[in-house]
Write a structure and sequence with these properties.
- The chain is of the alpha+beta class.
- The chain contains 12 helices and 12 strands.
- The strands form 3 sheets. It has a 5-stranded antiparallel sheet, sandwiched between helices.
- It starts with a helix and ends in a 6-residue tail after the last strand.
Length: 533
């Protein structure tokens, strides 16, 4: 499955989408948790500041002895004693101690009632003084007055420890066995508020007056429940987004691969007899248009190659058919009746000419086949180009007749990588064509030169020339310019095709320039073995 582009694209998109969703969900969860903790910390800090102001307003001597401290957040502030269990215990111990110190009041009920009334009045004055002190400290510290929601919802509990670890005041603390020494060690000498978490509870610690310890806490159960709900909501929404994203990516990848399937379908329709199919580039995306264009060009070349091969096969069969037909006719003629010795000689001579032409054609076809198969370079070695020209000129000098053969060779040695026989064949074909299509007393020149990088071999004549419209086709196999170049003059239309194949095998190039009535010039270029020398 991993060999599929569509599957790899889907897996890659799924991984990226999953990473984005998980990262975004983590950020949302962290933001919600951070905002919740920050909100709790702000409220806890306000409560700590308020309690600190309340303790500072309380007489400092009270921090040196146990005394019930009422919840400053409860309605009535300090006017309602014994709000919790610790306050009741402390109040009972104080009352017991007071009764032991006043035995006379115990024996006299009237005096005792009078004392109780005085103590109650004293307590009310003290509470009023403390409330006034708390309000004054609140104004000095610029603390806002507690709202009704803050009084009954935030904070949930508090405890104030004296320096010796005795509870000075507490309210709704769920843990009555807190170790003040642990919190003192944790707080150390810090004079700022410390926030910690303990057993689903958010705690704020602060060093109060006379090294007292103010502990304010709030339960995190509600916030944790809300965060758990958010967590599951994020999982559900993230899974839904991932599912929808995967469906979308599968659809999009299918649309992306649709042009590829169309290209594959077009390529599958191609065959040796069905090569006209092409990819419609108008319906292909920009990214695939270049590929479609390259494939169309390849199909064009493939179709051209098949057409040339079919034409070559048909032409080769036609060229072989003619000498075979001549040979067969002559043999039938010789066997039709008894003939004289001279007649038999004429028939045999005609058969020999036909077989020679057929042999020449077969040799040419074999040469082209070897060139197409790349089998001509096995005997390549360093050869001297001027020596090849001298050898070819010597072979055609006797056949030149009234034609003028000229040779212009440089003084320096020009060396290329190639085969002496094949290069002689190229030069022989060009000189033979020049002799054949140049009138008598015409001039044929073979010139060798160099430009420092390539060796240049040029064959020029002043013959009849080649029409301009025929120049692009002269190197095609079995191509003839006109009736003057047909098989009656010995031409087969393979000479220039063989030259082109042999020059290409030598990593060279061949071009033709011609003007009708003025002559033709063939220029070949071959890479030098030692350029610049």
């Amino acid at each position: 499955m991993l060999n599929s582009i569509r599957a790899r694209l889907l897996f890659w998109f799924a991984g990226v989408l999953l990473l984005v969703i998980v990262g975004f969900a983590c950020y949302l969860y962290w933001s919600a948790e951070h905002a919740s903790l920050q909100q709790m910390d702000v409220r806890l800090e306000g409560a700590v500041r308020y309690l600190d102001a309340a303790v500072k307003a309380y007489p400092l001597r009270e921090l040196l002895k146990p005394y019930p401290f009422n919840n400053p957040f409860a309605p009535g502030s300090f006017s309602s004693p014994n709000q919790n269990r610790e306050a009741r215990l402390l109040d009972n111990s104080i009352r017991k101690e007071a009764m032991e110190l006043r035995p006379a009041e115990k024996r006299n009920p009237d005096k005792r009632r009078e004392g109780d009334t005085n103590r109650q009045s004293e307590m009310e004055r003290r509470n009023q003084a403390m409330r006034d002190g708390v309000e004054r400290m609140r104004r000095d510290l610029r603390l806002p007055p507690p709202t009704e929601s803050e009084i009954y919802k935030m904070p949930q509990f508090f405890t104030i420890f004296k320096e010796n670890g005795v509870v000075f005041a507490t309210n709704s603390d769920p843990d009555l066995k807190r170790d003040p020494q642990y919190f003192n060690n944790l707080l150390g000498k810090m004079m700022t508020i410390m926030f910690i978490e303990s057993d689903k509870t958010r705690l704020a610690l602060f060093r109060g007056p006379e090294r007292s310890l103010i502990l304010v806490g709030v339960s995190m159960v509600h916030e944790l429940t809300r965060l758990d709900t958010l967590f599951y909501q994020l999982i559900a929404s993230g899974s839904l987004a991932l599912f929808v994203g995967l469906l979308g990516s599968w659809y999009i990848s299918g649309m992306i691969m649709k042009p590829v399937k169309a290209i594959s379908a077009t390529a599958a329709k191609l065959s040796a007899t069905h090569l006209h199919e092409r990819i419609d580039t108008r319906q292909v995306d920009t990214e695939l248009k270049e590929l479609a264009t390259v494939l169309n060009d390849t199909f064009d070349r493939l179709e051209g190659a098949f057409q040339r091969q079919s034409r070559f096969t048909a032409d080769a069969g036609h060229e072989l058919r003619t000498p075979l037909a001549v040979l067969h006719t002559n043999l039938e003629l010789a066997l039709s009746r008894p003939r004289s010795e001279g007649e038999y000689c004429e028939i045999l001579k005609s058969c020999l000419d036909g077989s020679s032409r057929m042999r020449t054609l077969i040799d040419s076809l074999l040469t082209l086949a070897r060139a197409d198969a790349g089998q001509l370079q096995s005997n390549f070695k360093s050869i001297e180009l001027c020596q090849v020209v001298r050898h070819a000129m010597a072979q055609h000098q006797a056949r030149a007749g009234n034609h003028v053969l000229e040779c212009k060779l440089p003084a320096q040695t020009i060396t290329i990588q190639g085969d002496m026989i094949l290069m002689s064949m190229v030069l022989s074909n060009l000189i033979s064509n020049a002799l054949k299509y140049t009138p008598e007393h015409g001039r044929i020149q073979v010139q060798v030169d160099t430009d420092g990088k390539d060796a240049i071999l040029k064959v020029t004549d002043n013959g009849m020339g080649i029409p301009e419209e025929s120049l692009p086709h002269i190197f095609s196999r079995f191509f003839r310019v006109d009736q003057s170049r047909n098989r009656t003059t010995g031409g087969q239309g393979l000479g220039l095709a063989i030259c082109k194949s042999l020059v290409d095998a030598h990593h060279g190039s061949i071009t033709c320039e011609s003007t009708v009535g003025r002559g033709t010039s063939f220029t070949m270029r071959f890479p030098l073995i030692n350029p610049g020398v």
